[in-house]
Amino acid sequence: MNILLVPPSDKELDDAITYYNTQNTILGKRFYHAFLESTEHIIATPDLWPKVGSTTFKKQILPFSYFILYMIVDDEIQITCISHQRRSPRYYTGREK
Length: 97
What we know:
2 helices, 36% helix, 28% strand
């Protein structure tokens, strides 16, 4: 399966890495590696993670307070959102196609 970062999730990933880099460059690298590990888990078992809508799944980026929202479309994982847990759900509601 392929992973596709659907805009604006690509910018959200960059923003999160930038934020952690301003705290400590090691944190930015750790966040990015945790993100990559999470996507590997999603690819290995895409329908294992909790559903948060009729077609959307949610995977935590551990140990960070961020999560990934994604959909399975044909043979592709489409990441629609990368968000901090404290962000209002109104921020990402409606990103499904």
